[in-house]
Amino acid sequence: MAKYFDVHPDNPQPRTISQVAASIRDDALIAYPTDSCYALGCRLGSREGIDRIRTIRKLDDRHHFTLVCRDFAQLGQFVQIDNDVFRTIKASTPGSYTFILPATKEVPRMLQHPKKKTVGVRIPDHVVTQALLAELGEPLLSSTLLLPGEDEPMTQGWEIKDRLDHVVDAVLDSGDCGTEPTTVIDFSGGEAEIVRRGAGDTSRFE
């Protein structure tokens, strides 16, 4: 049965955030809010967590997982970025974007696209997520909480708790955070390619 945490959206309780971060370090799989809908998240090196996310969402090995990072300095440890791309991404973060880039050696191979050796990265503009990332001290391995056969992600923490009670370990609820997933931009080929249009404005990438 999943633990349920009611978190204040503007002033998340430090004790609660600390509890959740500790559970992630112990290999918990959580559902948590972001600036563009709820996501599933686990520890960066958790093979079990990856397998559980794949099972819940029915994903194949070509799916790009996302490393949700606290800031640009952390993001830069996990992906290779040239100067032009650096400036473009820096101007767009934090925000509702996921960027696909070549992975560095810091990224476990099981997270990389099997052929392209790429990974998704993002820096969310969300108080609760940022508090959790600060406490955790490393990125959260994440995937949008979009269930198979459904067109939109779930937006209510209580509904997530009700439906995923036996497949996740914890649910953070800080209120509705929308149904639109991130805009996905693939920079792995050197030029910006819009893979998915979502919550982030695409004008600067066109």
UniProtKB/TrEMBL annotation:
InterPro entries referenced in this protein's UniProt entry, alphabetically: DHBP_synth_RibB-like_a/b_dom (IPR017945), Sua5-like_dom (IPR006070), SUA5_domain (IPR052532)
Tell me the keywords, alphabetical order: Nucleotidyltransferase, Transferase
| Record-annotated YrdC-like domain positions | 14-200
Its name, as the record gives it, is L-threonylcarbamoyladenylate synthase
Q: Which GO terms describe its molecular function?
A: L-threonylcarbamoyladenylate synthase
- Enzyme class (EC, first level): transferase
Q: Give the Enzyme Commission number.
A: 2.7.7.87
The record's section on SUPFAM superfamilies has: YrdC/RibB
Which organism encodes this protein? Answer: Streptomyces pratens
